[in-house]
Amino acid sequence: MQPTPFTPWAWREPSNQGSDPVTAESTDEYGTTGVDRTGTDLAGVDLVGYKVEATDGHIGSIDKASHDVGDSFLVVDTGPWIFGRKVLLPAGTVQTFDHSEKKVYVDRTKDQIKESPEYDKETFETSEYRQQVGDYYTGSYRDFPR
Fold first, then answer.
1. How far apart are CA 96 and CA 86, in angstroms?
2. pLDDT tens digits, residue range 43-90?
3. Over the stretch 114-130, which tens digit does the pLDDT of each residue have?
4. What percent of the residues of the chain are helix, what percent strand, and what percent coil, each to the nearest 5?
C-alpha cells in the first residue's frame, strides 16, 4: 500500500487522520456548530494563539494562520525554544486539532522544525520561498512519514 502523497499547502483530508478521540463537531459560545479537527472547514476558526505540539513536545504558539485553499500555513512563534525564531509550517504538517485545549498537533519533530528554512516576514509569501519550504517538508515527510 502506497502512503498518501504529502501536499504541503493543503489541509489533510479527515479520512487521512485516523481515529479521532475528540468529536468531529464543536459548538462555540453562541451555539454554532462547526467542523472540528479536519482542516476542511476552518475558515471561521481563528487559530492564532493556539499552542503547537510537535511529535516530541511543545514548540510554540501560532502567530498567524492562513486558510486559503491550496496555500494554507501557520506562522509559529517558537519563543525561547529556538532563540525567538518564527517558523512557517505548511498546513499539510498539521495532523490534528484540539479546539477545547487550543492546541494544534503537527507530525514533525522539534529538530525537523528547527532545521526548517529561515522564516522571513518580507519574503514568506513569494513563490520561491514557498517552494523551498514545501520541498523541505515534503522531503521530511518522505524520510519519516506519519
1. 21
2. 567 899 999 999 999 999 999 998 888 889 999 999 876 667 899 999
3. 889 889 889 988 989 99
4. 25, 25, 50
- To the nearest whole number, what is the mean pLDDT of the chain? 76
49 vs 102: CA distance, rounded Å? 8
What's the number of domains the chain is made of? 1
Checking DSSP bridges between strand 103-106 and strand 33-35, what pairing results, if any?
A: unpaired
CB atoms within 10 A of CB 126: 11
CATH (domain of 72)? 2.30.30.240
The three cell numbers locating residue 45: 476558526
- First and final C-alpha spacing in the chain: 14
Q: How many H helices and E strands in the chain?
A: 2, 8
Measuring CA to CA, which residue among 124, 4, 11, 131 is closest to residue 69?
11
Q: Which residue has the cell 481563528?
A: 46
Owning domain of residue 68: 46-143
